[in-house]
Each structure stands twice: as structure tokens, then as C-alpha cells.
Batch of 3 targets.
Target 1
Amino acid sequence: MSWWQGFLINLQFFTVIPVHREIPMEQAQLKRSVQSFPLLGLFQGILSSALLYSLIEWTPFSTLAVAFILWLFLMIITGGIHLDGWIDASDAFFSYQSIEKRLDIMKDPRTGAFGVLSVIVLLSARFLFLYEIAGQAEMMTYLLIAIIPFLSKSVMGLFLITIEPAKQEGLAYFFQNKMQRSSLWIYLVYVGLIVVATLFSSTVGSMLIILLCGVTVVVAWFMKRKIIRWFGGVTGDLLGASVEGTEVVLWMIVWLLHYFVMG
């Protein structure tokens, strides 16, 4: 029951999917919530893959229209919560101020020029990748798309547990108070099961998933170092920014794979 409640907590916090029930926010439920971050990502990825497949196979829409609809869906399904973190983190980073000042900037409800510019670049890059991927989609494409949010949500959980909070308040601090590092062992089980399941159907698919996992490890290592250096710890905004940053890199990798491996 706590696993299901943890997953429902994730739906409430990180998606626009309505959950019409009151869920206890005790340690058991929050632990399962963090442990099911990757499952939430996989759920979102499956929805995205299903939408792309449906639009390509069952509608007369052009590639541009298909890419635009999927681009909108990726923003709408999360309610923009991670994009908000990307914007706030960008404003804070490009201020080139002290750690304390950067944390204050992230709390400011106003959006600065750097936040606007950074989200335009992020969304433009994502649209480019989606457009070109949609025009070259094959069956392996849908699997890789489903894996992208699975990996980005895994990074979010990893940072939440392994990086000290930058401040003693906020969503990240609330979750961290209920968690232990030992909770992350399940993430390795998830990755192993996906790789093994894919191996039975496609060796190439397994290799591509392993490649995405390797890229994710490198991106996570880089971002973790910079978060600690530039902000002194993690916040809810930085967790959202890590999701968006990881995903845009993985979308780029899938885009490149269509040119140099899968094409």
C-alpha cells in the first residue's frame, strides 16, 4: 500500500493528473515516493511514446504538427514545475553573485532576463530534437523516449538524497528529512530490469539504453559538482533544473543516434 501511496504522491506533486484522495505524508509514504521517482518518469515516458506513435500512425498530421503536439504535452503533463526550477536556477546562476545571494534570487517570484532566455533556448532545443526524431521515428525510438524521463527522475532522486540541502526549508528539505541514502538501492534494480528485459528482444536496444545510462551518469556527476560549488547544496528549484538539464541532453543523444546509429 505504501508503494502505491508513494506513487500517488508523485502524481500529485509532479504532474497535472488529478488524484482525488488524501494521502498520508509520513516517512513510509515519502520514502516510497522517492523510490518510485523513476517509475513516475517511466510512466510519463510511456505516455509520451504512446502519444508520438498514435500521432504518427493514426493521424494525417505533418511532422511539424506531431512534434509541436508532443512538445506541448511534455510541458503540460508536469504542469511546468521543472521548467520553473530551470528558470529560477538560471536567474540565480547568471547573477554571478555569492551563494547566499543566489539562493535569495531563486526565492524571488519575479523572473529575470536570464531566466527567460535560458528557457527559450531549452525549449527551442527540445523542439528541434523532437521535430527531427519524429521525422525518423522507428520502433526503437519509442523505447528510448520512454527511458528519458525514467533517467531524469532517477537523477532527481539521487540528488535529493546525496546532496545536502542548501537551506532549511522548501520541498527538497521536507523530503530529505524523511529519507536515507540506503533508499536508492532500488534505482539499480530498475535499470537492471529494463536492460535485461530489452536484451531478450533486442541486443542493439540494450546497448542504446546502456549508452543513455552512461550519458546520464556523466551528466549527473557534472551537475552534482556544480550544484555544490555554485549553490552550496540542493533546493527544489535545482532538482527541477536537473530534470530539465538531463532530459535535454538525453533528447540530444537520441537525436544524434537517429543520424549516426539508427538511420
Target 2
Amino acid sequence: MENALTEPLSYSRVSTYNECPRKFELKYIQKIQEPSHWYFSYGKSIHAVLERLLLCHLGEDGQLYGDDAALFPTSLSQLLDENWLTEGYAYPSDEDRKRRQALRVLTAFFPVFQSTWPQMVYVEHLINTQIDGIPFTGIVDRIDRVNDSVLRIVDYKSARPREASALTSHRFQVALYAAALSQAEEFQGKRFILQTYYLRENLKAEMDEGAENCIAKSREVLATTAHRILQGDFRGKRGSKCLSCDYRDICPVFRRI
């Protein structure tokens, strides 16, 4: 598998490999498709609305406007309808319930978004770079300028942080993005604040002090992961997630559980 890095690594790929190397092999090397799930559609729908919001302008009255119409509150529903994805829902009633939930989430978040809008300098910022010689790609949801020397890296999550391990993984994601951004001349010498924003709870998890250590650790994890992939180490990892894994029916590790 010496050609396993013909495609750049990303947060999703690194996270998948460390969850289970066999899952990484099946998904990214053998290219076996996962089935559709409602939570993929739900998260993509909310992110699409957030991206549309960022194309708006701030009026003198402090409201966000798309063209000449104030966005709050009725246009949020329209934006959600225009960007709603339907794949993966088992029943129409489930889809309707999740759509109403998504609208509540966006409505609750809108004042927060509105108050921090002037700080934003980039949205859906594409990264294609190398970190310590390792090809890396990703899309940063949002970059804020706190002051001339400090930037805030923001990633939005539509899922709940159910476990401490999820919080650690999500922090690792924004740390990787900061490591990648620091390679660009525009961002060199900047200090980064790492933020994950949980939309359903309207809650932010932010790291300022200690961010540099977290960024350094993310580079170590990336290097170790890349090395193991290049070595062809795709041994399956048994764990609690095996029961819900989309590849369990073709995984020899699961069949031995």
C-alpha cells in the first residue's frame, strides 16, 4: 500500500484511521461507499444555511440582509427549505421533526451569529497544503480576526458532544486546521484560538491558553497516522463502535466478536 497517500489526508481521514485502520482501508482505499444516513443530510443542510448567511451584508440597523430583505426570522425557514437534503430519513415524520429541530437551532443561533459577524474574515476556507511534508486538505468553516495578531478558528457541529472523546476529537480538528493555516504566509506569526461551536446546545468550546500545545500534538498525530498508512497497517480495531459500523458485514474483525 505504498501509494495510499496519493490523496491528501484530512481530518476525516485521520479520525477514521485512528478509529479503525480497517475502516479507513475499506472507505478510502477500496472506495466502498457508506449508505446514506439522516445525520449526514441534517448536518450538511445546516452548514449550507450558515454558508448562505455569510454572503449577506450588515445593515445600518444591525440586521443581516440578503439582497433587500432582512433575514430574521421568516427567511431562515426559506433558506432551510432551499438547502434541505432528504437522503437517509426512514420516515417522512422523522424528516419533518428534524427539519423543525434544525429551524429551532438556526433561530436560536442567529443572534450569536449576528453579533460576531463583523469579526469574520473567511468562511468555508479551503486548505490545500503540506504539514511537515504530509499532504493535507480541509475546509475551515470560519476564521475570525480577534485582533491584528490573533485569529479564531471556528468549526460548527450540528451533533451533540455526547462524550469527552468527542470533545477531544473536535478540538483536534480545529488544531489541525490551525497547523495547516500556519503554513501560509498570510497566517504566519499569528496566534490561534481554537473553537468548536455546538449548534444544538448553542454552546462553544474554546481553547486559548494551551492552543499551541494542542496544535503541536495534532502535528504529531498526523505524522504518526501518515507513517502507519504508508506502512500498510490496516489491522482492524475492536471496540464499541463495531456494532454500528457500516462495514461490519464485510469486516473479519467484527465476525470474530
Target 3
Amino acid sequence: MERHFILTLGRSGSNALVDVINQHPQALNYGELLGDWMQIRKIRDRLGLWGGDDAGYLDALLADGVPLRVVNTLRNLRKRRAGKGGEVQRRANLHTIGAKDFATFFQAPDLRRYFLDRPDLKVIGLYRADTIARFVSWQLLDQTGTVKRDLNDTSGPARITLDTRTLLADITRVAEESALLETLLSELPEDQVTRVCYEEFFFDAQAQKATIKSLYAFLGLPDAPANIRARKINTTRLRDTVLNYDDCLNALAGSRFYDGFLAAG
């Protein structure tokens, strides 16, 4: 069985990408595994499994063994209870299994070479080119609790206030995360990695179809129907989202982010 991993950052559309992969009858992606807020990670830590070794933990879950059988069985039960029997995955049909997680976890010494040391592990680098947009999406999550929006969500734009005292440092931190992701991806052989750009992925239906087709081919999967079943959290200009937009613009004056913040306004 083949293995894959979505290496990404928060607020980059990874939930939608996981859903696209899981719509294929021959693919299964667990989603996040490393965060201490994830239930499977809590069980691992409570039982002391894999001796606290994150690399061994990932290897075990990305293998065709007992963890896969247990996780897939529990997932299928949830799908049936939710009336989504068509999304049940049969282990015998699976061609590739995978997970997703954030590049920041792979700064740890025990994970720094995780992908380099596993050349058979296909890596999907999902990135968001617009640093300002990703930062604002984080703030929307923090202040409103909105993780994602379904396609039938017709609620109006959320409004938030940004802290001008830490604004430059906060955006700089987001930019540094993006640089880390690019560093990790650029270290890998070309045939091990493919990149998916958030802005292109969500651009329009034609771009989505092309991205999905290319992604399935990279994973060694035949074509299959799939759709993005979520929408962007924020689709308005910054002036309509950030209540103190002008104060923020002044706080960024002279910085490398000023022009981007101005253009998005």
C-alpha cells in the first residue's frame, strides 16, 4: 500500500484537501495526527504508545496494520451514523493512506528528516501564497471560532479587531512559517513532492477540477468524481473585515507587509 502526507500550515485549506482525497474510493487520509488536541494523540500519550516517539507513531499509523484497521473501522461507523454510507472506505480497496499536519511540527529533532528518510512517502505541499490573508484567517478563527464554512453557509462576513501593538510581529511569524514550509519542501526530491497552491485550488471550478485530477495522478489513483465541499471563511476585502483597518495600516507603515495590506483593503 502506498503512503502520502499533506505537509501544510494552518488556514491553508487542508481540511478541504483531506476531504477531496477521502472522496476517492481508493484513498484514506486521517487528517491531523501530531497536535496534542487530537483524540488519537491523547490516547497515544495516555497509554504511552510508541514511547513518545513521533516518528514511530506516524510510521505505525501510515502502515497497513492494526492501527489502520481500528481507525478505519471507527471512521466508517461515524459515517454510517451520519447517514453517509457512500463515504465508507473498504480497507481491501485502498491504494494509498495518509495524514496531514503542519510544517512547524517538523522542526523537532526527531522529525526534521522524517520525509527525507522515507523517499517512498509521497508529500503534498499545500501552501497559501498570501501571507496577509492567512494571518487574517487565523485571527478570524481565534476571535470567532469559525474553522470552516459549508457551501450552504449564507452568513455575512465576520468582523474582527486586530491588535496593532503586535501586528507586525504576528504577521512576521506567519511569514516565517511559510518560509519553513518551503524549506522543508525544497529539500525533497522532485519526484517525491507535489505542490498545491491555496489560491489556485480555490480559484474557480475549472482550477479545482485540474488540481484534483493532478493530485490523484500523483497519488497513483485513477480519475474519480470529487468536489470541494467547503468555502472560504473570508471573501471580503480587509476594510469590510477588520474594524480598525486604518490603524493597522498605520502600524505596518514602512514594513514589507504594508503594500500587501493596502492592496487587500
